[in-house]
Known about the structure:
Blueprint: H1 7-15, H2 48-81, H3 84-95, H4 99-131, H5 139-170, H6 175-197, E1 205-207, H7 208-211, H8 213-225, E2 235-238, E3 249-252, E4 259-263, H9 264-269, H10 272-287, H11 290-324, H12 335-348, H13 350-372, H14 379-393, H15 402-408, H16 414-423
Parallel strand pairs: 2-4
Antiparallel strand pairs: 1-2, 3-4
Amino acid sequence: MFKQIVLAVWVLIAVSSVAALSAQPVQPPAGSEASAGQKQPRQYSLPPDKLQRAIEYSRARYWLHFTGELYGVAVLGAILAFGLAAKFRDWAEAASQRRFPQAVIFVALLMLTNDVLGLPLGIYGQHLELAFDQSVQSWPSWIWDWTKGELIGISLAIVLVFILYAVIRRSPRRWWFYFWLATLPILFTIMFLEPFIVEPLFYHFEPLAAQHPALVERLEKLVARGGLAIPPDRMFEMKASEKLKSSNAYVTGLGASKRVVVWDTTLNSLTTPEVLFVFGHEMGHYVLGHVRNSLIAGSLALLVLLFAGYHALRWLLDWRGEKWHVRGVADWASLPALLLIGAVFTFVSEPLVNGYSRWQEHQADVYGLEVIHGIVPNARDVAVHSFQLLGEEGLDEPNPNGFIEFWLYSHPSIPERIAFAESYDPWPNHAEKYVK
């Protein structure tokens, strides 16, 4: 999807990515060997055949990620350098003298050009998922999902771009602030409606109680232990197995649309105690307000980006605007330059965004262990085994480069989570952080 145009949504999704226990690249935790007589800590490991595949899969994804970021910047640069943005503007202005039809034509042409040029990388990414047995989605289904994503992205982008340039024309010096204010209700509306409108376009959902009533009864006991109000009608099963082989769960929505979603692959691959731990982790996101906090953090990040974009865009157009045939900041054709700035900002801010996400995920791990303590026998063993299974299933590499973990990990590494689950024992001193 054209993430630069809906940069605000991209930032919010990035920082509120609370897909609990999703398979991430891993690195063994540092520490000394156990002393004589002590139990040897369990560590994440893979059998030799899976280890080699995990290394190959991880390396391919790393290269794809960084290549994709650089390629996206290059595509936007080419659209400007070859005058395509100016041509699209001319065609839009020739078609209508009214601003909204111009926005429809210009944005659609720009998005389709950008995304079609980026399609080979998307195809390669899906090829990797199929080659390494992470996906079962057919190519026609994948292309249809891509098409639906384009239609959603274009529709949203038309609205945002129309508002953006209307604000720029009316307030050339403070458009960055007024546009930020205008996006806030839009962003919160998107987050509220996404579970109702967007997600069902890509996956089938049904109430968790429909096929798993006994599990829901146990989950309700867990909810009561946490002192929360998550009724069964806010617990959903997602039919991920129609497209994916990995396991996952997540919290989504805002206010009345907030819900906990468990993938059917998770229900099929994990035992009931392990599912309770996964759900407990998601309860942590729910009770600790991570979606709300991520929205606030993402909104503030957007404000910083728009302020920086205001200054950088003026400099960029003074430097190259004439060669790009861009008339000024208020010209439709300046949009790729603004998106170029946004793409660079998104790339360099990845470590910060992912660091914030890792912090939230660790909090949810703490909550998950605390809330199942006394309800699930051998809770720490359950957590450790869950992490091990999910690491094997997702082909998480045991020994990635430290830079990769710093830059790309949205979750703590599997070995770190296993080490934490093994060592966390606050109950003798009643020192729990979240669940008393």
